[in-house]
Amino acid sequence: MLKLNTANDEKTLYRKLLVNGELDKGKKFKVKNEEIVDASDIFIDHVNRKSNSIYLTVKKHVLKDQFKKQVHNPIYDRMIKQVVKEQHHPIFVFTMFKTKNHYYAYLALNAGIYDTGTIYRYSKKDKKMSGIGQTSNDEHVVAIREITTRQYRKILMFERHEDLFTFYNGFIESVETWTKKKN
Known about the structure:
By secondary structure, the protein is mostly beta strands. It is built from two helices and 13 strands; from the N terminus they run ββββββαβββββαββ. The protein is globular and about 55 Å long.
């Protein structure tokens, strides 16, 4: 489940992430124990005049969560290093999320009029982020909520989306795994 704000913070939207990476309407939720770290302002973009390309560096920084408490986490450091290594555009928004023991990130580049934001999931095994979905250029992820198996089953009692998936216990599950056949 995702909580998104429109670009001008005019309204808050709630979305479910679909298996094809698209977003569908979701139900309102509150951020509880999740850690949210906005690292948007730590990146500095530079222009390499010889190759006419952009590269990023990171300025000296102290990461803080949504409660302004200092955060020291080597996984966040790895996520930041991956962004610096892979991105060749100025960073508009980069927010990292920790839900239970899983990590996610939202990245929006400042690359032009058709920008989209990308939602990433961090793999502790592979020690890197992989894209799992995108938002439109005027919606930015501000919170992510994992749901439990029980919550997932409850959702399925009321909805049927062949391509819906969600994160629970760190795994992606298809709806068909839990859907009961209608009589």
